[in-house]
Every structure is written in structure tokens, then in C-alpha cells.
């Protein structure tokens, strides 16, 4: 009865002192001890609904979206400085890197989500949250129009608008089908938690259907043919998960069809994981070949029907079709309609993706910020400003720059144009002054504007778009919240680099992305990782590194405990194959 | 790193010796130790799909359904004696008594389900499972027609038929709306796991919608009005769970609408929980009143629209309507269409529910058995057989029975007509011979047929239908599997009572239900229980009893661990309010 009496006492303590610090001692399977003390002393009771407040004293910040970018922004924002209102069609944050694990039940869907209200109630200051979808951004009138996406018969008009002083767009992206016919109708996706749940049920459906009496062997084979389109980290991880799920669990439950299962991975490029180091890429390809996963590289999907998927072999130009049971489409992201419409309003209509400057401010629209997958940073080219830079650096107005004059502005240049640093590194130049060397490697005492242009002419080729990853989105959210928190402070004491085309300094440092590496789990308790400093790590130990990193990155202690216990459960009992 | 190295070793051991016994030591939160050794040595690899086998040697048993009845039957059946084929639209068994806990996330849906294939692969002998719905029972040709209910584009005809030697119907019942208009369209139910998941999402939807800007207070109130129809154990438990969910978790996340929430429980009878002892009934009513749950007894729902629920106050005959946000309908069960159709075929068309005899054999149909909620036992009345009994007992054919003659057949009578025992108990008669007393309390030496009839004339009033509970279904499944296992044995040595209307003995003892008591959790860590021997227990300690009984009754160690860890999680972190 120890366990029950513990519960009774714990329960009583919990109810008697709801706001006291809770000390939870969780005994993990290894016998290890995790002591966790969560102080709730900073909980501020959220506000009453008072949307018609006249003349708010605080500036209103409207945040759209609660994915990686939006949540990171909210987690670090000092909400006591602003009237913060959050709108998102989902009332939770999802730890999306674990979505492939959810597809096969290695981790449960609920273990990777945390209610937004839980996250915001622990923040300093008042934050209001509305579960609704932003259906229109009205840049001219500085307002957003939102509509509740709850599709039942509840009363009340679910449409409302919110005016903003600052708008933070973190609405994410949508699946990109590249207009391939039949994809939306016949494919599964892997962007949302619900997608992963659908795949999980879909996989079991394929097995249950394939095993029924009366099917031909060909029909069974078709139903058990799983096709994954896209050889990026998500597609590869899903293929690996599916293979493990089958090999470790389903093979025992559906032994009669075990020889009929096939997994095909289709990649348009020449290699899977081609954003990774090529050692990782070929390690993954070799492992998949050993596992019997059919990797079709250099193939472009031209259409998907309910029964077949047609593709074109790039090398031969030949189009062929294969029957499928289930297709998962995982090939990059596209712009949401509401963002497209907004881009038209602000003169970005011709662009493919919303552009911000280096401070994450949407170009052509004041007081609107965009972070995460919904936008990209349009890095200013150094050549556009080259004359202004030269003029600003040429203090004595001699028409030439000395090394000293150049050095004096170089720090500001490197901050304002990060491509310069990348260029130096890729050209193996130790110092910025190396740019002053002539073609024979001798330092020039001075350079004129033409020589200066020539020295920097190739720098802009190093400008790179950031990938649409959780890591980038999270860093942007955190960066932006820091700017919002220091808005008053930095007004008087700007921290940014000097303005070459104007006077004074930029208020804030521009956003700078720091890459902490990337994982690609490959199944069978093996993973590959690209770590900072061009380190590459592959194999079982990398998988353990993956476990520890992903456990530590969870948004709350609750999800951390749940994810670790899901992994433990999977080790002990395997994955659940119930069709729910 | 201890935890990781444990994992590595455990994982390796698991993969190297997949069939070895696994010893799992699970360290629970209390520090208590549960040692669990699961022997897998009896796993027999399931058969290949071979449906067209000609002339099977073993008799084929087709089992329809994998609920409490079907699963209990399968768990104890010696499948090596038969060719066993199971058909169910769900590929899992669900521990339905925990469904109310799933509606509010106290327990996760996946924690209460166990895949049927997991259950059957551990059985002795071969069992085949098909995920399909039986759409037609063809009693004449001894076959069932089934159709896959997987609604996607997988290839192959999902329809097939199975011939049977013995059919075990365990298809359960469906929701009974009593033909009340609008119920099917506008109410939530609590029969399946998916129902519980829908309610969970629905409750959160109500809160998210109610809190949106621009709604009137009246609209918020309407959306937060939760109505439960049916004051049985399920409805009462759901009301209690919902109240706890709100008080313990949601009130912190939606503080601005906390005064607008209302829970109404509608019961047509005069009291809720009226199948329980009246002390429990009034304890529950008092607790609910204290909790602010509005209990409307003596009310019959006449219709449900998307916005309102209309009911009739029985006492006054007055019809009135109240607006609602969410209605859960939980009022007993009805017969499924496939069973109705079958009843027509076998001449039971006029009955409301399928009738079996005391051996669970469907009346009017050979070799078909029905267990669980889909059927009821039509207990043979003693008065129908009274002449035969008298004749059989009157060994010396004297036309009168002596006490000795009566005593000789009494054991068989009590087994064949269990209402006799109930009658003796209710009449406070110590012994069957008390029936021989005359009106003045004196023993009569002999009775004639008329006196015999008179003595037993009130016995049949004690005949009772068994309730549609998991407990009854499980006992019937186990009972029937025992009969199947002992079929050959009992053919030669029948174990049943003597036949009064024929010769010899019945092959098996008739089914006899043993009531182990019943729980009604009432929220706030309190429960009520009716235990054997007319014991009644209420309060916090009963809730702990409930926890231990429900944990011990789980179908597998996997679900047991999951359910207990869900309870623990709820104690520590509360319930999740993510809308997934």
C-alpha cells in the first residue's frame, strides 16, 4: 500500500499548497534520479477578457502562430511591457522534430505537445491567447482578421479582428506539392501532429487490409508498398522509423505477409540527405540498401493517383508508374495563402516567399515582423552599399582608403554583412586586411573605390538563405523577443552597427543564426549527425546523443518525462499497433 | 550516462534473445517494486493466410467481436482444438470502464487498449484475426459475411465470407437513442474509444470558443453548458471527471470564464445511480449538489437540436428547453442491425434483444452462441417444467412426493433454475424443505402435484436479467471457453444437471453469474462501491480501492503500466488540454 499512501499524501499536499514549489522525484528505469523543482512563484493570473478596452496604455503586440518561432518569442518576451495577444489555430506547441517518431508510435502524439496556455501562464506579464486562424492581414489599418476554426455548433460569431501596434508573424509554412496533380488528394503529409496520427492509422490499415482473406498476392503487395517522396531529414527519418516498426513489431503480428512489405524512398536529387555532408549521405544510402529500403534517386514525381504514383527518371526521361498502398509526401514548404495575400498588399507580390530585413522586419511594412518558416531574410548585398561604405570609411575624404581607415569600419561591415566573414573563411583569408593585398600578395598602402569594389566583388556570392528548420525559427523567436524587451533601452543606446547609408547606428544587432548541428536518425538505433565545426558522427552512439539532445530540448518537464517514458515503453513493450 | 547504457544493453539483449523470458523491473514512483516476468515460451507462430483450405480437420469456431465477451472467450480458449477465426471491426480490445477517464485525459486512450493480435499470439494454438465488420449472419448456410471497414483506396475486395461449425457472437450493443429526435446528430456518446477522444476534443473546443473576443456573456454561458443524459454509472462518472477536469486544470487556464461553466445531469428516474444501493445514490446526489453539478431527476429528454435540449418534467408534464454547448448521451444500449436481422431469420423477430438459453446457446439456432451485451439469457421458468419435475422426482410413481424424493432432485433443480435459490434467500427460508411446510408452518409428509405447484408458484418472480456490464460479458466469455475446452470430455461424462423433460444429464453446467460488486467514481478522489455481501463503501478510501482493482484488472502488463503511469502523470502534471 506504499504507493497508495504516497499518492494520498502527494495529492493532499498538492491540493493544500497549489502554489508552493513542487519537488518531484522521478525514479527512472535506470535507477537514476531526476530531481526537479518547478517554482511557480512567478505565475501571474491571466487577465479577464476585455477586448474593447479603450486607449490601452501599453503597445499591443499581436503574435500569429505558436510553432517554434512564435513559442520561442513568447517564452522570452517580457510581457509586462506590452499588451500581448496570441492567435493560433492550434492551442498547443508541438515538438515537430519528433513527428516521424509519432507516425509509428515510438512516441505518443500527446507527449510532444504542450498547451500554449500552460506556456504563457508562466510568463511575466499578461498574455492572451485565442484559438483561431488569421484569415486576413490588413497592413494599411494595422489589424488582423481572425476566425475560429472550431467546426461545431457552438454559439457566437467566431470572427473577430485585432488591431496591433506590432505584429509578429510566425504562421509557418504549408506543404509544397509543386502543383503535382493528385498529391493533395492521395498523399499523407508530415507537418502537423494530426498528419502523424493519420499516417499511424494508415500504416495499420494497410496491414489489416493486406492480410484479409481473398486478396491476391499482387494486391497484398500493393497495399504493403509504402512510398516516401522526399529524401530530406523528415522523409529519411520516417522511412527508417517505418522499417523499424515493421521489423521489430509488425512482423510478429502479421507474419503471413512479412515478405510482401516494401518501402521506397523517392528523391529528386542524386543523393538522399543532400543538405548533409556527403559521408552522411552515403552512410544513409548504404544502411538503407542493407535494410532493403529501395532508394530511387534522380526521380521526379509527376502525378499521384489513388492507386499509383508516376515518376520520371531524370537521366532517361522515362515516365513509369508503380502501385502503392500509402504515399507520404515530404518535400519542402510553400507559402500560406494568407501570407501570399499580405505580400500582394505590401508590394512583395512577385516574390515566392515573404522577405524581411536582417532585423526580421517585413520589407515594405512598418511594425510587422516575420519569423520562422513563413519568411526569409533578404540579406543586403554589400555591393549595393559599396559607395556609401567607401564614403563613410574615407574619413579624410582623400578618395582612397588606408588600411587603418578600412579596419575602423570593418567590424561594422562584418556585423551588417555577415557574408564577408563567410567569404574570408572560405577563401582561407586570416584577416580582413588580406582583402587589401594586390594580385601578387603584397599589401597596398591605399585603395581607391574601384580597387575596393574589386576586393569585395565576390563577397555577396556567399549570401545564403537559412533553411526552414526548427532551429532557425527558435533562434529568430528568441532574438526578436530580446529586441522587444530592449526596445526602450536600445532607443537611446543603440547596440547595432553604424549605418553606412544614413547617420548613427542601427538600434539592434541584426539577427545572426548559429548552427548547432543537425541529426538524421537512420533506424536500428543508429543516427547520423553533423555537428558544429564540420564534425560528422554516425552510428549507435550518435543515436544516444540524439536521445539526450531531444530529451533536453523539450519545452517543458512534462513533455520531457513523457517522451523519455515513451522511449522506455517502446524498449520494453514495443510499439502499439491498435488502430486508433 | 547510466540510463543510456542500460538502454543499450537492454536493447541488445532484447534483439539477441527475442524469445527469451524478459524480466522487467519497473521502479514506480512510490519506490515500490514490481517485478514482472513474462514468459513467451508458449508463443506459436500464427498461420499463413489460407482461407480456402478444403475439409478442415478441426471444427471451425468463428468469433465475432473483441470486446469484453469475445476477448475473455479467446483468452481462455484452447485454440489447438479448433480452427479459430476472429472478426472484429476494431483490431484492439478496449478496457471500457476507463472510458470516462479518457474523456478528460486522466488516462490516455492508448493506455486502455491492447491489440487483439497481441492477445491471441500468446494463446495456445492458432487463431486468425480479420479486421472487418460482420454485415450478415446466414444461419441457414452456417456462414457469416464480412466487410472490411477500412475506408481508403487500398486495393482488393474487402468482402469475404466465413463458414463456421460454431459461431460465437460477441458483437456487443449499440447506443440506444430511444428514437429521440436529434440525438444521433447532436450528441456525443461514450461507447467506443473514439467517442471518448471526440468528447475530449469537444470539451476543449467549448472552452476555446467561449473565451473568444466578441461573444456575449450569454453565448459564453451556452458554450460552457455541459449536459449529460443518463444517470447511470457511466454518465455519473463522466460528470464527475468533467467537474474535476474543470476544477483542477481548466480553471487555471481559462480563468476569465470560470464562473460561466455549468454541468447538468439529466436522469429520467427519481434518483441517479438507481441500480445501486440507495445510500450510494443519495451520497452521490449530495456530493454533486455540493460540487455545483445540477442534477435533474424525473426528466425525460424529448429532443436535441444543435443548440438546445428539450425535456419533459415527468411530475408536471411540462416541456422546456435549455441551450447547451455539448451533450453526452449515455442511456443504455440497443440491438445492432446485424443482430436484428439475424433474429428475424431465426424466429426471434418480435423480441427486443436476442435470447439465449442458460448455456448461452442462441434459441432457435444450432451451434450459435451469444455472449455479452448482444444477447440476454432467457431463464427457463420452473412453472413451465413443473409437471415433468414432479414426474421425475416421483420415483415410486405414487402421485405424491416425499421430502426425501424432493431432496433427491433439489440440487438439480437449483442448478437448472437458479431463481429457486434467490427465492429461498429473499423469503429467508433456511432450507429447501421449508417449501414443504403448510400454511401453519408444519412439515407435510407428502405433497401432491397441486401442492407442489403452489409451493413453487412464486419462485419465477425472482428471475432477473443480467445487466449489460463488462463483468457479465467477461464471465460469459470465460464460461463459454471452458465449455468449448471440455466439449469432448463432457460428451461422455456430462457435468450438468439432470434433464427433467428428457433423459440423462445436460452436457455442461449452465452459466451462473457471480457479482463481484460495482464502482461509481464520484470525482474529487472519492468513489462509491457496492461490494459482495451487500457491503457499501464510500469516500476517499473507496477511490483507492478503485485504483487498485482497475489496475489489477488490466488485460496486459503493458496497459497496466501505462494506466498507472497515466494516473501518476495526472497527479504530478495535471491533465493535458491540447486540442488534439
From TrEMBL, chains A, B:
Location within or outside the cell: Mitochondrion inner membrane; Peroxisome
GO MF terms held by the record: calcium ion binding; NADH dehydrogenase (quinone) (non-electrogenic) activity
Catalysed reactions listed for this entry: a ubiquinone + NADH + H(+) = a ubiquinol + NAD(+); a quinone + NADH + H(+) = a quinol + NAD(+)
Keyword annotations: Calcium, FAD, Flavoprotein, Membrane, Metal-binding, Mitochondrion, Mitochondrion inner membrane, NAD, NADP, Oxidoreductase, Peroxisome, Transit peptide
Entry's transmembrane regions: none
The enzyme's E.C. designation: 1.6.5.9
UniProt cross-references to InterPro entries, sorted A to Z: EF-hand-dom_pair, EF_Hand_1_Ca_BS, EF_hand_dom, FAD/NAD-bd_sf, FAD/NAD-binding_dom, NDH-2, NDH2-like_C
Any one cellular-component term (Gene Ontology): peroxisome
Enzyme class: oxidoreductase
Every EF-hand domain range: 381-416
Matches recorded under Pfam families: NDH2_C (PF22366), Pyr_redox_2 (PF07992)
Membrane association type: Peripheral membrane protein
Co-factor(s): FAD
Keyword field contains Metal-binding: yes
Family, as annotated: Belongs to the NADH dehydrogenase family.
Record's protein name: NADH:ubiquinone reductase (non-electrogenic)
